[in-house]
Write a structure and sequence with these properties.
Length: 159
Amino acid sequence: MAKYILEEMLRVRNFRKDVAEKNLKQAQRLVEEAKENVENAKKTLDEFKIFIEKETERLYKKVMMQKVKKEAVDALHYAIKVLKSKLITHEQNLETAKDNLIKAEKNLEEKREALQEANKNVEKIKSHKEEWLKDATKEEELIVDKELEEFAKKKEQEE
């Protein structure tokens, strides 16, 4: 039987499909990592909020009901501002993690679509190959039948 004329194209499309599957798995892993990062950022933020409350309370208790210099009060306000700026940083980290998750999910969807397209392309060639094989088999059967007829005619002529 003759070699399938689009065998190389089928091989390339199968390769592309394998690459698309690999990319999809990688994108799924990235989504999972992004989800973990969001959870970690939320946890860190929540823990820091609790810490900042306790620390603010501790700092205020330290200076309350005491005679302190203005520098000590200024230092207290500065320490609280530093804590609040760190809180803002944690909030920004959470937002960044959420944005990264959205990007990872979008990328995952693109990889799913690419895999679907690759599967569709492979199926087209496979379908064509099946039809080609049916046609090639019919052709070979016709050739064999013709040869048998010719052989039978020669045999009749010889007798």
